[in-house]
Amino acid sequence: MNVGDIVTRARKREPSPETMLTADRGNPDWIATEPREAFFLLGKFGLAESRLVWDEWEGVGGMPSKPHIHERYVAFLQGNRDEPGAGLLMRSLDYVTNMLGLDPDAFVHELAGSVIGDNYPAPDRMLRCCEKIVHAYLVKEMCASKPPARPYDLFATEGGTAAMCYVFDSAMINGLLKRGDKIAIMAPVFRPYLEIPRLDRYSFAITEIHDDAGLTELADPSIKALFCVNPSSPPPVMISPASLNKLAAIVRDNNPGLAVISDDVYGTFVDGFRSLMSVLPRNTIGVYSFSKYFGCTGWRLGVIAINQDNVFDEKIAALPAAQKRALQRRYSSITLGQDRLRFVDRLVADSRQVALSRTAGLSLPQQAQMALFALFALTDSGDSYKRVCQGILAPRLQAPRPEAQANSTPRPEAQANSTLTREMLVPPPRKLLPRRGYTGGGVGVGGVCGLLCWDAPRVSRAKA
User: Fold this and answer.
1) In the chain, what are the helix, strand and coil shares in percent, each to the nearest 5?
2) Could you identify which of 45, 157, 166, 194 might form a hypothetical disulfide with 302, taking C-beta atoms 3.0 to 4.6 angstroms apart as the criterion?
3) Are 438 and 234 in contact (CB under 8 A)?
4) Is residue 207 a contact partner of residue 183, using CB atoms and an 8 Å limit?
5) Which of 95 and 24 is assigned the larger pLDDT?
6) Residue range 255-276: average pLDDT?
7) Is the peptide bond before 235 cis (omega within 30 degrees of 0)?
8) How many domains are there within the chain?
9) What's the CATH code of the domain at 74?
10) Same domain, 44 and 154
11) This prediction's pTM
12) Are 448 and 270 in contact (CB under 8 A)?
């Protein structure tokens, strides 16, 4: 059931048990096709490499061999140059070797093994080449192409949902947050982020921040963490540059130990977007999901980003001796030196109850598709795909809401060159995240989630 169906039922006053179950899930009604075409063509290469290694029995292959695999890959792409997806695979190879400095054999071997899923993820946190590719993507899309002084360590997760669960759990386990702590939430916000802190396990004391003036609350050192969705949903607005700078100054000057958890899933729809992970890299745990921008909610592709220079490792190092001993016991099966175990690696271990962390990690095919989505954006020098997405959203942002369309005059079809400008997502002056009548409930058709799956008129190229 999509948002349009929910609105139709509400208009007819029909009861719907699915309404609250699907209210907080925004699913795009479009997908990025070329990265998927590249994935399926890559699968053909992976199977060919498997058979090259072992063809003793029908239906059984081996594990791709690394020596000279780059040369075989180039020959494969040349022989399949007219196949859908070949262009992206060729551009990607050029990009990773010339722009990221990756060894071509290492890159192709990682992709070939990943697409056929022939092994456990190693490293468990994220594959080496995949991490470098996604890091470059996050710098481009989350940091306005301005890399931080120190790089981020990435942890590939089963979507943004799993990422948030892992962050909450490990923060509690490692003493970064305690039951009953004071936290701040930028509101309005994705409803589960209001519900999770109220669970008995956490019982956080919540301060909601609704505007620019409310940012001064963060100067209170007793507030241990800040949670935000940026751009928000609902409503579809992002934190203004002025408010970002003000927030950063408050944290640096008054609350340097503040933990910031920023969900930036919608940031890729905005030109020149800057996440809090860019503005406050030491303090911020960045959570990003590929789901919305590439139309891949079913793939479950997310990532946690933590800068190598961060307050979380420092806080763990400063814990009382008794708490450190307890953590040493917890992680003793994977390390002899708990003090040297970084928070990002604790996230990985905790995601599999520590004892099962040897088989932790996002599946290899998922990481292969994640890398191809990232490379699709990185090699799109003119951001043509972003312009298409903005063109899809712009009419929905400006059009009457679905519930008002029954009695409205039909709208003109969306223009191919429509753009979702930065101003459309930046709130009015002196407003951080205006309420716009939101009360914390409902289906959120006014937010970004609603814009993604709204049953709005679309231009179809299908022949009658």
Assistant:
1) 50, 10, 45
2) 157
3) yes
4) yes
5) 95
6) 94
7) yes
8) 3
9) 1.10.20.110
10) no
11) 0.84
12) no
Rounded CA separation 204/200 (Å): 9
Predicted confidence at residue 169, as pLDDT, reads 95
Answer for the pair 100, 132: CB distance below 8 angstroms, yes or no.
Answer: yes
Cα separations in angstroms, 126 against 40, 100, 110, 118, 338: 22, 17, 12, 15, 21
Mean pLDDT over 416-440 rounds to 33
Q: What CATH code is carried by the domain that includes residue 292?
A: 3.40.640.10
What's the pLDDT tens digit per position in 168-195?
999 999 999 999 999 999 988 878 888 9
Contact indicator for 417, 391 with CB cutoff of 8 Å: yes
Are 390 and 424 a contacting pair, CB within 8 Å? no
Among 221-225, 310-314, 345-349, 434-438, whose mean pLDDT is lowest? Answer: 434-438
Produce one character per residue of 28-46: b if its CB has 16 or more CB atoms within 10 Å, e if not: beeebebbbbbbebbbebb
Among 116, 44, 103, residue whose Cα is nearest residue 69:
103
Is 340 inside any structural domain?
A: yes
Residue 84: name the closest of 115, 116, 39, 48 by CA: 39
The pLDDT of residue 187 is 86
Containing structural domain, residue 100: 34-119
Residue 69: is its pLDDT beyond 60?
Answer: yes
In a domain, 463, yes or no: no
Q: For residues 464 and 456, what is the distance between their CA atoms, to the nearest angstrom? A: 20
Residues 239 and 432 sit within 8 Å (Cβ to Cβ): yes
Pair 152, 267 in one domain: yes
Per-residue model confidence as pLDDT tens digits over 113-147: 999 999 999 999 999 999 999 999 999 999 999 99
Which SS3 state, helix, strand or coil, does residue 413 take?
coil
User: Which element (helix H / strand E) includes 77?
Assistant: helix 69-79
Closest CA to 89 of 119, 75, 103: 75
- In the chain, what percentage of residues exceed pLDDT 70? 80
